[in-house]
Every structure is written in structure tokens, then in C-alpha cells.
Amino acid sequence: xxxxxxxxxxxxxxxxxxxxxxxxxxxxxxxxxxxxxxxxxxxxxxxxxxxxxxxxxxxxxxxxxxxxxxxxxxxxxxxxxxxxxxxxxxxxxxxxxxxxxxxxxxxxxxxxxxxxxxxxxxxxxxxxxxxxxxxxxxxxxxxxxxxxxxxxxxxxxxxxxxxxxxxxxxxxxxxxxxxxxxxxxxxxxxxxxxxxxxxxxxxxxxxxxxxxxxxxxxxxxxxxxxxxxxxxxxxxxxxxxxxxxxxxxxxxxxxxxxxxxxxxxxxxxxxxxxxxxxxxxxxxxxxxxxxxxxxxxxxxxxxxxxxxxxxxxxxxxxxxxxxxxxxxxxxxxxxxxxxxxxxxxxxxxxxxxxxxxxxxxxxxxxxxxxxxxxxxxxxxxxxxxxxxxxxxxxxxxxxxxxxxxxxxxxxxxxxxxxxxxxxxxxxxxxxxxxxxxxxxxxxxxxxxxxxxxxxxxxxxxxxxxxxxxxxxxxxxxxxxxxxxxxxxxxxxxxxxxxxxxxxxxxxxxxxxxxxxxxxxxxxxxxxxxxxxxxxxxxxxxxxxxx
Length: 546
Prior knowledge:
Elements: E1 2-3, H1 9-30, E2 36-37, E3 41-46, H2 62-68, E4 76-78, E5 84-86, E6 89-94, E7 100-105, H3 119-130, H4 138-142, E8 146-153, E9 156-161, H5 168-172, H6 182-186, H7 189-194, E10 202-208, E11 212-217, E12 238-243, H8 247-256, E13 261-263, H9 267-274, E14 280-283, E15 290-295, H10 305-315, H11 318-325, H12 354-363, E16 368-369, E17 375-377, E18 380-381, E19 383-389, H13 395-409, E20 414-420, H14 422-430, E21 436-437, H15 448-453, H16 475-486, H17 490-506, E22 510-515, E23 519-522, E24 525-526, E25 529-530, E26 537-538, E27 543-545
Parallel strand pairs: 3-12, 3-13, 19-20
Antiparallel strand pairs: 1-6, 2-27, 4-5, 6-7, 7-9, 8-9, 10-11, 11-12, 13-23, 14-23, 15-21, 15-22, 16-17, 17-18, 24-27, 25-26
């Protein structure tokens, strides 16, 4: 067995200390003049969709990760520099062939129901993720190569894999694979969705649908992660997690003091916060993929690469990004986020060239136009259905899509933007009722490329969700992604992912826009920071001011 990198909890805290201290200092500088105090209820207002289930094993979307960070914790963490750190597991070892991983758990930990965090609990969690009846998607894909977990003893869980998985630790650091009480899972999905039981600094007390979730402090908290700056329970008594879809309403609630933290602020609110003395802006872009528009290569008209390139050459998103985002984002030309060291960028593929777009469409046979100016071919219009999730795209992004719609329309595309809530958006994707889509997907590390662009991703997970919305099916790309997933050498892995990214970019199946945005505004509180895993907020060190 080859020991994997190991840090003690103290070393992990030290490694993240600088980043967390800067966040704490910024929060203090951006708060009110009142000194922080212990106790009280912090109010958080989210603009993301209200989860239909508070258990991130079920489905597996970002709103679940946001809230579950407060009550569920993963086996391992990831610090601000991207280093995997201990969390519920204090150490791990991997076999020479990469097919066996041994995790040693921290001794003496319990869930908030008093049951032990032991190897049997880890086994139950992996089985829960892999069970089709759980209807998992993100977590299911993350542990797809794990065949079973062997309980060696109470603190020793042995993972057996069907094939080497170089991304296993990254996958196990995410909220969608966080560890829950087996007793909680045994209650059945309906009850567990209402209040999953974990080891986090808070526990679910109650949930009033379409209004809020009330979280209370875990008085026995004993498993601080890499961001924690103190031992023991959180300083806050409770968190009220409110669902406020409208950005202006969230901002007004923040400024009035009704809430202390909001997410998904509009760009003008971010700019105002940057120039404020009493509001702190936390910019925490998500890892993995970028925000992008994906073109459905599996059906007309984007099954023709010439039509895909024509759309991308006509889209011209840069002016809209500059005007709408007011300098709060940076244009991307990569499939991967700027936070990923393995990201490959090629701006030359995305230059605006309407003359080339017109010629490409002519070459592809879309040579005539109807009375509306839409190109036609054999009686069919050059139509592009573009469902947009209003829960996942802020107003600025929706306006950007409308500008892209107009720009593509100028060369003959009929782009049909349909705003939908999250459930309607999932339904449209599942029915393949789209030619273009902006589908955020968060995963730690470059292995997100395998989830999004391997042909296996065309097949739905048990939840019905499939991740390869571009419908790319390229044997060469599949082979590279498989090799990268199995590679233990970091440089080899990086080189393979680079080759894969070139194929993805050259396919004109995606239009990269910018990092997946994660902005938080804090007013009237300090000590709020974000995890180094999927950039969700943590309140273990948070205090109210005054």
C-alpha cells in the first residue's frame, strides 16, 4: 500500500489559515463598528432554488450543497490551495494498482442523533448513493467506480474499485457524497429529505416549505474542517435559511438588517459592496467547469459542426459581458474554471466573425430565408430551443442570453429562449427538447470533463439526469478521459486532460462564458468564509455584530 498525502487537522487548519484569516479580516473590515458577539440567529437569504429534498444524495444540485454544508460533512476536505485534507477520515492509503483505498476514520465522532461515525456508516452511505431508488445523480456519478465498501473494523473502511479513479478524493470532498447517519437514512427517503442527520456544526430543526429552514447549533460538534479557526461548537445559536428568489428583495433585506448574508447578488450590488464600508463581498467561483452554452450535437441543426461554429462565431458575448457584469466576471475560453490548474484556453476559436458565420451556414445548406429572416433548409427553419433555468441564471445572465439570441438572429438563427423553473428545466432537458442550454455543473477537479463530455454521460443517472448535454460521442475523447481517470501520475493526468480539452474546444460544442459565479454579500456579521471544495459558505466561525 502507498500512503496517500496526509495532514493532521492542525496542519490542515494551518494550511488554510492565511486564506481564512484574510476572509475573516475582510469580513470584520466590511462589517459594522459593533464588536462581534457570541450567540444569536444569523439570517441567510438565498436566490437559488429551494431544494425539494435536503439530502444531497437525492438528485444532487447546488442548492442542496449550499444548505447541506451546514449539517453534513465529507470524508475529506480541500483547502484554499486545492490540497486534499483530512476531515471525517484522518488518513487514507491506496494500493499500488489503485483498486483499493483504505480510510481510517477519526475516533469518537458521532452524528447529531448520537450514533457513531464508523466504517459501517461509511458503507451505508456509499450504498445509499449507489442505490437506484435513492435517485442520485451527482453523488452517484462521483462514486461510480466504487463497487463496495468493506468494514475492516470500526474506524477502518476499505473501498474496492472496479477501475482506478484518480479523482476519488476530489469526489469524496464534495457535499453530494457527504456522510449521513445510517439511522437517519433508515427512516426512509421522505423523512430523511426533511431533515438529514450529519456531523456538521448545525442540525436541521424545522423546514417550512417556500419560506425557510431553521438550523440549530450542534452543541457536540467535534469535526472542524480545514476552514475552521477554532475548536468546538459554532458561535451562532442558529441559522435561518430563507428562500427569497428576487435579487432586489434579497438586497433590500440585507441593507435593512433583516438578513446578514445573501447569495446571487446582481452585479451592481457587488460593485456597491466593493465600494462600501459596511458590506463585505466574498467572491468564491465554483471549481470544475465554467458557465457555458452547450450545443446539442446529437440532433439537428447542431449535429453539423459548421452550424455549431456559425452560432459561436455570431454569438458575440463580450460586449454583453462587459456591460451587464460591470467588471465582476472575466471572459473564459476554456471548458474548465480558472480555479483549475489543468485548464486549457484557446481564444482564437471564439472570435466573432459574422461573415464566416454566414458562409458556414451557406456551406451547410441553410441558404434561404423565410419572411422573418430565419434561414431555412428543405422547408425546416434554423430553430434553436434554449430553455433557461431562472433559478440558476441571474437576471444579468438572462439578459446576456437575449443579446446572444439577437446576435445569432442577425445571421439567420431563430433562437427560442424559454424561461423555466428548475423542475421544468430538468424536464425539458430530459425530453431532449433543446438545441442549446446553459447547464451549470460543479465538481472538484478536472475530472468534471469526464462527467460532462464522455459518451457515458449521455445515459441518465438513476435520477433521470444526464450530464453530457452537448451529447458529445467521440471515442478518442472517451479514451483520453478514461486514461486520465486512471492515471496516478499528476503530470500525465494533466497532459491527458489538456488533450481532451482541445478536442472539446475544437468540436464547437460549447461556448465558454465565465467562471460559475458564486458571490456572497455579508453585512452585520463576521467570520463568514467558504469551503475550498465546492465554494459553499460555512458559518463555523461566524458571529453577529453588535
